[in-house]
Structures are given as structure tokens and as C-alpha cells.
């Protein structure tokens, strides 16, 4: 029988829509700026480092700008900045020893030579001192000299010792190390270590030239004037006693301070001592205004009132709207809202502060942290998962690896559900000397009846449910009693519960997964069946030995993908999980090298997270190898994003979730959050609404793809001109179709109106829209 395609021509009357959405293939980056540790005034701007990221504050219009990898910076995790005013250049040093020069706040010159230098020495940069056109970088082995004007590394003095700080006058370089103070004459060959002279045993942490004199700070002692006795000996005299964590010179001011106090020098012999309590990590000065970096409070402008010996604020605290921390160990996407928490089941997460961040409508909400410990009497740390009440977008829960279940209302702490409240239980066997009140929860998820499910690790009743009426339901499962390593729950299309057990911690904990068929009768356990699988065979009958089971995801065909340290395992028929002949599939990818051999898919990668997009493709996050986008069957690698070939912040991926409506892929990395605009969304159930295309109109300077959204799954799409000539055709990815604006010969089409005709794969439904091309 011949299949006919039906298009609804009346849809051509739909007006052209200009839809504001990110272009396919574009990236966004979100990093934390909350822990402000350093600032540098630069004309009308003040640059600042927050959590290793750079932002600027415009003193004239009070705007804030964030700078990120590839927009326009070259890297992430900034360790140090300094501003060279003559050349209007901000020197940016990263923790990996990469260097950027940001000139005129727009042009970036990357200097990777020092980072890439093949030397066995530690390349950490501890301090920057500016003199004329040079920046002197104090490193863990000596001093590296950067010519700011020429934008190049001009020299390096290897002293074979860690240099804390250096200073330069017209005659000498002064270098402070843990072994003492060294000097080198600028007229000598300082590449020869023998031309450096030790002149004092004092261990200075900071050096500078102030009022034509050499000054330095000694930890826990104070600020000193350093005097030359002779070429081989320098002594030092106290200027101001104190335990100062920083010391810098800005113009005619010498500033030395710590969290609570400051020594402000208006001259070498004129010091104001100020108790401020602002939590300063750094203080800079320009044009009468002091700029204080006050950790999590932010950046604030201050004026000094000499008569009262106090600072007065000239601005509010400045922090860009951003996540509280770069901790995205687990994410959840619900109702156009991203939920992210910063803890993990792994013991490395125990030290992470309680971090719960919400991203909605382009704004970050950092859920309350302050005061929770005072209310509960317990440390607020290591949140492992978060969930939003389906009936109330301002009601949330977060699980904790140690304290129980936290409940929040209106983004404020409301209640801690823990031992003794008729719900949760503590771990029955105490390992590593931990407290008997150790209440470990994880894997929060709602079912269709708004029951909140979770794992309560290390107990007799590992699976627990909090019902909407506040009552608890326990599932007693002897096979998994007292196991401590369960993580994330999913429900499959049958309503069965699956949860991964991450690793073997040396007792009765094993990597694998648990499946519970509770027959959708939450209050009747008599009809339940369950199984805990910790050993596997593949499709060839070969044993598959895994050390870690990180995640589970069900695709649109009901196939379950399991992330392990041996690559992905695939359960093609999950209903057979209770059968004795159950097996997993390891996908074999042909080598295509003439040997007729194949390799198991990603067998050398730890698969930390798996997420399924609207086209049933698999987004795979790895520990150390970035992100893979695999085809529906896993046989083709559609994309492989790494920190080296994309704006991806790190190759260590912690979590991935997808906005099903927009197709945006949220990628939580060890250094922050990336969002990638993919070319697939969830398909519409039918053509009830007209599809829309963007950008529309398509202007001459646009070079990206044109996106058509609002389609049903596997739509057959044709693009024609007004004469009915076929220009392009293809099949949608879920609910999205993309077109590069070119005809079948690869040429950009001329100006005019082009019709987009879409039909479902059976040819029974059709719809259309139009695109205006301007060449």
C-alpha cells in the first residue's frame, strides 16, 4: 500500500515568530563567584576573584560582568591577578600555571608556554610583583619574568627553592623564601644561581617597595622595614606588630591585614590600626576608595574616616548572581527548574558544606545554610540529592549522607527528619569510627502519587517512603540489609524501582543494583518481589567484574543503561531481571581496521552519569574523559566534548540532566556548570500547535543552524521555496529539526520565504510554518 503524506496547508497563514532561544551548539557557563579573595582596581572597573573565577564591577554604572572560559578567557580556576595600569593589562594566572593577559577589558592574549614547559619542577605561582613593563612571578622554584608590553616570558631564574614573594627596585631583586631573604643585582647574570646572595635568615611571606624602602611581612609577627647593613647582611625593624595574612602596596598606601584588622600606612612611619571585623581576605585602593574582598560576603567599596578610625561603605556587597559553590555532584531537573547539591556518598564529600542551589528563569537561588547547625545541633554537610514537591515549587527536600532528610519551605530550612521521629534509622554497623547517629539518606524521587521515596543506607529497611500525609512506609529487604552504598533511585515504565549500589567498601557492600517490583501497592508488601544483583554475565556468557556502579537510566524504549567503571552495561529486557538466565549487554563497537574485531563501548571509562535526550540518544558523563553523546543504540559517537576541544570546564563530570522542553543539557563538572544547547527536545504528542522556527527572520550575518521546534517524534520534514521546489529534507531529533540554510548543492539559499512542511512518520498528521531568509 502506498503511504501518502498529508500537510495542513492552512498552517502557512501562521505569522513569522522571532523566538528567543540559544543557538544550537552554543554553550553557557555558570561558576560560583561567592568567595571573593582578591581585587584589582583598573580605571572605572574593579576586577575581583570569587571562587577562582573573574568578575568586574563598573564604578560608574554599577554593572557586573563575569568572565569565563572561552568568553573570553582561556582557562578556569584563577589563582592570582595583578593589574598593570600603563598597558591597561590584567595579568591572570591560573592554578595550572596557564597565563592570560586581558587588555583593555576585551582582548585576551594567552601565554601557555610556562604551563607547557616540560620541567620536573612545581610550577605554582605564589605572587606577582609589577615594575615598569615587567611582572615578576614568584614560583615554587624561583622567579619567572613576564614582559607585559611584549606579551611574552622573557626570563626565568631557577633558584631551586620556593619563592613566597619578590620585590624589585632600580638596583636589585629581593626574593623571600622559607630559607631566608635573597638578593640579586640587576646588572649581574641572575640565571647563575651563584649570583644570588642570602642576606637574612628571616622568613618573609610578602615583600614590596614602599616609600623607596624595602618592607616585608613575617607570619604571626608583623610588618618590617628591611635595611641593608652590607652586601651580605640585612636587618629588619618592626613597623607594626600583628598576624597579617596579606600585604600590598597601592599608590601611596601600604595595606596589611587579616579577617578582623588592618594596618593602613599613609607613610613609612604613619600607621592607622583599624579593627573592622569584615572578614577581609585582601584590600586594594584607588582614587580614595578601598576595595575589600570579604570572602562569602563579596566585594565592597569603603572610605576611611580618620577621625573615627573606621571604614564607611560606599557600595553594597557585590557578588554576581551565581551558584554558591562549584559543587554539582547531583542534579535534578523539574518543572523548568534545576536543583543541584554539592555532596556525595563517597567519603570525599563528607567535608563539603551543605550546598543546595536552585536555578530558575535565569536566576540562582542559594537555599539557606546559615543557622541550620544551631537549630539542629548537627553539622550541615554533604547533601546528596534534592527534590521539589510536585504540588509546590517552593517546597523542597534534600538528603544527606550523614544527618538525615532536610525539608525546606520558601528556600528556608523547615525541618530535619532524623532518628526518633518515626521515620529514618541510623546505620546499624558503625564503620570508620563514625557516630551512632549517622543517618544516611539518598536517591530522593517522587512517584505519580506524590509519595517521596528514598534510600536510608545501612539499615534493615533500606527503602523508605514519606507519604503526602506525613506517614512513613518501610520496605524490609533482607538481601540489602545494612548495605551503606545505595545512591540514586529510578522508576521504570512498569513502575519498578531500581537503585544502584556504588562500590565495595570492604564489608558486605557490593557494586551492583537492586530492583523492587512493589506491584504499585505501597501499603501491601505481600505482593512484592525484589532482587539485588552484584555479579553479571554479558551476552556472550562472559563474567563482567565491576568495581563501581555509578548510575542507572531508562531510555524511551524501556532499555536500562547502567554506568560502571567498565563502561556502560545495557539491560535490553529489564522484565527478565528476576530470571536465572538474566544477562547484561556490553555494546561491541567494530574497530573497522580490517581485523573483524570489536571493542566494548567505553570500557576504559568510568561512566558517572547517563541522561537520555528527546531523540533517545545517550549523554554519557565520565570521570576524566569529558562527555560523550551516543546515538540511540550506542553504536555511534555523535559528539565527544572535552575541556580541550570545547568550553567544557573540566573533564571530570559529576552529573548531567536535560531540560526536555528546550533541549538544554546541564553538565555538572568538578569546576562548575556548563549548559549546552543540543539539537533534540522531547517530541510533541501531536501537531496540536504550530511549530516555530528560530532565528526568524534569518539575517545575512547569521551563520548558525535554523531550528524548528514543536514537532512530533521522527517527523518527516521538507523545506521548499514558494515555487514548491524541494530545498532540504530530513527527520527530526525528537521534537527538533535543524537546517543550515543551504540547498541540496550546499549553497546558501537566496532571500525569500521558505516553507517548512512536517508530517508524522505515518504520514497521517502534518503541519507547516515558514522562514524568511535575508541574504
Automatic annotation (TrEMBL):
Annotated PorZ N-terminal beta-propeller domain residues: 46-197
UniProt cross-references to Gene3D superfamilies, sorted A to Z: YVTN repeat-like/Quinoprotein amine dehydrogenase
Keyword Repressor: no
Annotated keywords: Signal
Zinc in keyword set: no
Signal peptide (from-to): 1-20
Protein name according to UniProt: Por secretion system protein
Amino acid at each position: 500500500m502506498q503511504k501518502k503524506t498529508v500537510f495542513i496547508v492552512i498552517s502557512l497563514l501562521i505569522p513569522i515568530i522571532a523566538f528567543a532561544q540559544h543557538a544550537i551548539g552554543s554553550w553557557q557557563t555558570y561558576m560560583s563567584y561567592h568567595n571573593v579573595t582578591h581585587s584589582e582596581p583598573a580605571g572605572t572597573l574593579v576586577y575581583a576573584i570569587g571562587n577562582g573565577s573573574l568578575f568586574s564591577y563598573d564604578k560608574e554604572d554599577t554593572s557586573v560582568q563575569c568572565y569565563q572560559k572561552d568568553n573570553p578567557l582561556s582557562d578556569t580556576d584563577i589563582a592570582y591577578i595583578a593589574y598593570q595600569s600603563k598597558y591597561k593589562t590584567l595579568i591572570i594566572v591560573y592554578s595550572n600555571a596557564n597565563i592570560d593577559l586581558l587588555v583593555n577589558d576585551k582582548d585576551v592574549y594567552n601565554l601557555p608556554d610556562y604551563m607547557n614547559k616540560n620541567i620536573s619542577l612545581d610550577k605554582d605561582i605564589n605572587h606577582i610583583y609589577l615594575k615598569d613593563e615587567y611582572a615578576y612571578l614568584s614560583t615554587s622554584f624561583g622567579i619567572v619574568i613576564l614582559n607585559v608590553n611584549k606579551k611574552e616570558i622573557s626570563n626565568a631564574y631557577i633558584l631551586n627553592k620556593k619563592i613566597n614573594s619578590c620585590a624589585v627596585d632600580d638596583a636589585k631583586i629581593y626574593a623571600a623564601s622559607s630559607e631566608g631573604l635573597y638578593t640579586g643585582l640587576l646588572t649581574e647574570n641572575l640565571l647563575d644561581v651563584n649570583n644570588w646572595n642570602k642576606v637574612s635568615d628571616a622568613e618573609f611571606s610578602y615583600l614590596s617597595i614602599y616609600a623607596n624602602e624595602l618592607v616585608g611581612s613575617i607570619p604571626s609577627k608583623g610588618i618590617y622595614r628591611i635595611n641593608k647593613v652590607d652586601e651580605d647582611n640585612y636587618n629588619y625593624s618592626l613597623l607594626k606588630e600583628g598576624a597579617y595574612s596579606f600585604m600590598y602596596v597601592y599608590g601611596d598606601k601600604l595595606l596589611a591585614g587579616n579577617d578582623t584588622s588592618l594596618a593602613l600606612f599613609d607613610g613609612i612611619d604613619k600607621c592607622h590600626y583599624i579593627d573592622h571585623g569584615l572578614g577581609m581576605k585582601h584590600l586594594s585602593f584607588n582614587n580614595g576608595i578601598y576595595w575589600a574582598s570579604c570572602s562569602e560576603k563579596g566585594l565592597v567599596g569603603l572610605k576611611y574616616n580618620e577621625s573615627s578610625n573606621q571604614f564607611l561603605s560606599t557600595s553594597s556587597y557585590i557578588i554576581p548572581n551565581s551558584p554558591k559553590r562549584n559543587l554539582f555532584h547531583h542534579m535534578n531537573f523539574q518543572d523548568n527548574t534545576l536543583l543541584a547539591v554539592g555532596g556525595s556518598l563517597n567519603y570525599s564529600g563528607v567535608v563539603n558544606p551543605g550546598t543546595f542551589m536552585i536555578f530558575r528563569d535565569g536566576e540562582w537561588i542559594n537555599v539557606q545554610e546559615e543557622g541550620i547547625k544551631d537549630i539542629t545541633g548537627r553539622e550541615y554537610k554533604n547533601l546528596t540529592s534534592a527534590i521539589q514537591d510536585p504540588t509546590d515549587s517552593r517546597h523542597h527536600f534534600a538528603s544527606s549522607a550523614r544527618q538525615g532528610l532536610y525539608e525546606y519551605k520558601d528556600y528556608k530550612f523547615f525541618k530535619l527528619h532524623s532518628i526518633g521521629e518515626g521515620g529514618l534509622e541510623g546505620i546499624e554497623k558503625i564503620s570508620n569510627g563514625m557516630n551512632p547517629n549517622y543517618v544516611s539518606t539518598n536517591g530522593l524521587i517522587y512517584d505519580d502519587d506524590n509519595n517521596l521515596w528514598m534510600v536510608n543506607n545501612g539499615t534493615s529497611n533500606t527503602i523508605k517512603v514519606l507519604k503526602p500525609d506525613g506517614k512513613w512506609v518501610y520496605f524490609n529487604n533482607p538481601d540489602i540489609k545494612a548495605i551503606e552504598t545505595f545512591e540514586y533511585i529510578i522508576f521504570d515504565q512498569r513502575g519498578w524501582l531500581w537503585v544502584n549500589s556504588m562500590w565495595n567498601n570492604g564489608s558486605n557492600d557490593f557494586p551492583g543494583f537492586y530492583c523492587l517490583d512493589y506491584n504499585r501497592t505501597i501499603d501491601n508488601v505481600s505482593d512484592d518481589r525484589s532482587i539485588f544483583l552484584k555479579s553479571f554475565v554479558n551476552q556472550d556468557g562472559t563474567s563482567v567484574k565491576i568495581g563501581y556502579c555509578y548510575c542507572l537510566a531508562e531510555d524511551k524504549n524501556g532499555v536500562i543503561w547502567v554506568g560502571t567503571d567498565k563502561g556502560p552495561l545495557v539491560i535490553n529486557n529489564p522484565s527478565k531481571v528476576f530470571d536465572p538466565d538474566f544477562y547484561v549487554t556490553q555494546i561491541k563497537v567494530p574497530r573497522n581496521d580490517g581485523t573483524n574485531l570489536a571493542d566494548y563501548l567505553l570500557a576504559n571509562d568510568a561512566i558517572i552519569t547517563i541522561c537520555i535526550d528527546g531523540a533517545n540518544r545517550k549523554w554519557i558523563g565520565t570521570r576524566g574523559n569529558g562527555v560523550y553523546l551516543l546515538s540511540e543504540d550506542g553504536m555511534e559517537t555523535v559528539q565527544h566534548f572535552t575541556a580541550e576541544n570545547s568550553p567544557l570546564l573540566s573533564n571530570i563530570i559529576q552529573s548531567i540532566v536535560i531540560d526536555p522542553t528546550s533541549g538544554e543539557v546541564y553538565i555538572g563538572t568538578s569546576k562548575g556548570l556548563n549548559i549546552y544547547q543540543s539539537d533534540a527536545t522531547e517530541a510533541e504528542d501531536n501537531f496540536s500547535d504550530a511549530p516555530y522556527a528560530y532565528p526568524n527572520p534569518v539575517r545575512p550575518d547569521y551563520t548558525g543552524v535554523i531550528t524548528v521546534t514543536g514537532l512530533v517524534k521522527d517527523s518527516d520534514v521538507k523545506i521548499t521555496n514558494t515555487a514548491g521546489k524541494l530545498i532540504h529534507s530530513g527527520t527530526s531529533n525528537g521534537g527538533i529539526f535543524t537546517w543550515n540554510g543551504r540547498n541540496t548543492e550546499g549553497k546558501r539559499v537566496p532571500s525569500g520565504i521558505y516553507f517548512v512542511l512536517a508530517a508524522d512518520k505515518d504520514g497521517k498528521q502534518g503541519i507547516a510554518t515558514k522562514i524568511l531568509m535575508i541574504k
